[in-house]
Amino acid sequence: MASKQSTVDYIVDQMAAAGTISSKKMFGEYGVYLDGKMFALVCDDQLFVRPTEPGRKYIGTPTEAPPYPSAKLHFLIPGDRWDDGEWLSELCRITARELPLPKPKKPKATAKPTAAAKPKSV
Question: Could you tell me which residues come within 8 angstroms of residue 11 by beta carbon, excluding any fewer than 6 positions away?
Answer without folding.
Answer: 32, 42, 47, 82, 88
